[in-house]
Amino acid sequence: MQSTALEKQLGFLREIDRLKTVVRQSPLLNRSRKENSAEHSWHLAMYALILNEYADGPVNTDRVIRMLLLHDVVEIDAGDFPIHGGSAGEGQAEQEARAAARLFGLLPPPQASEFLSLWQEFERAETEDAKFAKALDRFQPLLINVFTGGGTWTESGVSLEQVHARYGPAIQQGAPRLWAVCEQWVARHFAGQGPGMPEQGG
Amino acid sequence: MQSTALEKQLGFLREIDRLKTVVRQSPLLNRSRKENSAEHSWHLAMYALILNEYADGPVNTDRVIRMLLLHDVVEIDAGDFPIHGGSAGEGQAEQEARAAARLFGLLPPPQASEFLSLWQEFERAETEDAKFAKALDRFQPLLINVFTGGGTWTESGVSLEQVHARYGPAIQQGAPRLWAVCEQWVARHFAGQGPGMPEQGG
């Protein structure tokens, strides 16, 4: 029996409800629990909406938002690979590619290939839109760690140098003015001080 | 001391983290817990992205997505008013308007007024974009109830007539082809049958 386009679309929308059960390492800002990947995706879309002026290159904010809305859907099959979780390497890329094929493949053909392409563009991080999206995907958890007094850095015993190495390149490439703020925050954090305020922002 | 634009923007993005702690009446599809308003907003944005062809009028999908991303932010101050929670009436509108003024007012002026306008447009439900956004905001919890064997309808003792009255107008106005599917689901549900499949979709 053939499914109609609408049946496939509704099947996809039901399937991705599971993203709400994928738990990330990062806490909520009030530290009451860990963040899940669905609400993280919402928050990142809001970051893109609010902070688009800090993108390094010319970006299409609506494409960035679409990219961020679906960037973590693969975690439904592949799980979340934490930034401080050790070497994920080849295994991660393969698992996520398989997940993308299965999940976006639930949609009718034009949407399936459209969203698969958008996800692949995000992963490759070569276009201005993807570079900005990737920068925000690093910036948001860094902000959480700074404003929760350490978050996953404290949990995983991460050093200042590791923070620079793991967050710096992506944020610097896609949103250098946000990285300038991060550098101040991180320096203060590892000096045992609070986040303070970014010195020059607007 | 004056805050820079970036400080205000980051303050807003931190403040709206609290939307992750606003719990709605609707469950997740796996019934493990109630949905929160942040992940609900993500899911609705995905509904808009996937289902835009079912809008009644010509819509700008990206505007609809932006509207849905921020439509519930007011709940941080005003709380969630459940659809089956009895008469909210004037109190709700006033509380939400105050919340919108405070929360969007955290942003620098151009964004503050831009997002306040977009939220007001959603609330008024007069434009094609807002009508479609409102339709999805009713369609998603209806789908959840049908696919969880009753959800909030069972909890609150809601009848078929009440479902038609509370969900029908908004969905019919913004997405009549989706309402046609809902009518079949709802009829089957109240006849003690499962959701089945929509008869004609694509």
From TrEMBL, chains A, B:
Tagged with keyword Hydrolase = yes
Gene Ontology cellular-component terms for this entry are: cytoplasm
Q: Which UniProt keywords apply?
A: Hydrolase, Metal-binding
Domain named HD is located at 16-179
Q: Fetch the Pfam families from UniProt.
A: HD_3
* UniProt GO molecular function: 5'-deoxynucleotidase activity; metal ion binding
EC id = 3.1.3.89
Tell me the SUPFAM superfamilies matching this sequence.
HD-domain/PDEase-like
Determine if Hydrolase is one of this entry's keywords.
Answer: yes
Q: Which residues cross the membrane?
A: none
Q: Which PANTHER family match?
A: 5'-DEOXYNUCLEOTIDASE HDDC2
Protein name, per record: 5'-deoxynucleotidase YfbR
